[in-house]
Amino acid sequence: MTTTSAIIRDSIATRVAAVTPSAGTGDPFREHRYADPLREWALANPASALRRFSVRWDGAVLPPLVTNTTEETVERDIEIVVAYPTSWRFGGQQLVDLEEVIDADCRRINHEVGTNGFASLATVTNTSATVTTVIEAANEIGPVVSFGVVRLHVLYSRSPSA
Amino acid sequence: MAVQELILGVTSQAIVIEAPRPMSAVGSVKLYEADGDDTSTEETAVSGAGTVVATSTTTSAAAGASQANPRLLALTSSTGFVVDRRVFITNDGLGEVVEIARIDGNNVYARHPLLNDYASGATVKANLRATIAVDNTWAADSSNLSSNDNPNARYRFRAAVTYATDMEGTVATSDVLYGNVDLVRYSSAPQVSPLDVDAAFPGWLDSLTPDDRSTQGRWLIAEAADLVRDDLAGQQIAVRSLRSAEVHRRLVVARAVYLLTEDAVIRGGASPQQLDAAKGAYDRQIQALVRSPVLAQDKTGAGGATTKTGRGASLSVR
Question: B94-104 and B123-125 as β-strands: parallel, antiparallel, unpaired?
Answer without folding.
Answer: unpaired
